[in-house]
Design goal:
With 160 residues, the chain is mainly α. The protein has one domain (5-159). The protein is 62% helix and 2% strand. Strands 1-2 form a two-stranded antiparallel sheet. Helix 1 (5-19) crosses helix 2, helix 1 packs across helix 7 (100-114) and helix 2 packs across helix 9. The protein is globular.
Length: 160
């Protein structure tokens, strides 16, 4: 297993959502569940499916910038502020692997672009439906729920 769920939430997901002014318990739980189901919380950060904790593909990353973030220069600037100054210009997709806060912001923007109704933070099946809709259209809900139960301590939600 990669990063401890509580540390990922406390030191990466929560601060990133607060920085973006989009924090809520459901958003935090959703991103944590996506990281668990996509990469086992960072057990492997790169494979053919995509980069980083959230397994975001290069075309999807580029499309998000071109079709969503380009329409909101203020938001784009905020997101760009999370990226490494020189590394982003040389290899923007590598930021999804090496920069956890940037990857988290991009993952959240992929969710925000679709504007789903967020379920309660403890509604794992509801979170799984959003994961499948946005990150794994061919995925099975049980893949998400199993990853949740394996990777995320049930006490975590009470600490959020």
């Amino acid at each position: 297993m990669g990063i401890a769920a509580s540390e990922l939430s406390q030191h990466v997901i929560r601060p990133t959502l607060l920085y973006l002014n989009r924090h809520c318990a459901s958003a935090e739980a959703l991103l944590l569940g996506i990281a668990a189901s996509q990469s086992r919380l960072g057990d492997a950060l790169h494979d053919r499916r995509g980069h980083g904790l959230y397994r975001i593909s290069e075309p999807r990353h580029q499309s998000l910038w071109d079709r969503f973030l380009a329409r909101d220069p203020e938001l784009a600037s905020l997101i760009r502020g999370l990226a490494s100054q020189h590394a982003f210009l040389a290899g923007p997709h590598l930021e999804l692997t090496v920069n956890l806060r940037y990857a988290t912001a991009i993952a959240w923007m992929l969710i925000e672009e679709q504007s789903p109704q967020l379920p309660a933070a403890d509604d794992v099946l509801g979170l799984a439906r959003i994961w499948r809709q946005i990150f794994q259209p061919q995925g099975r809900l049980r893949d998400f729920t199993q990853a949740w139960h394996i990777c995320i301590d049930p006490e975590h939600l009470q600490a959020c």
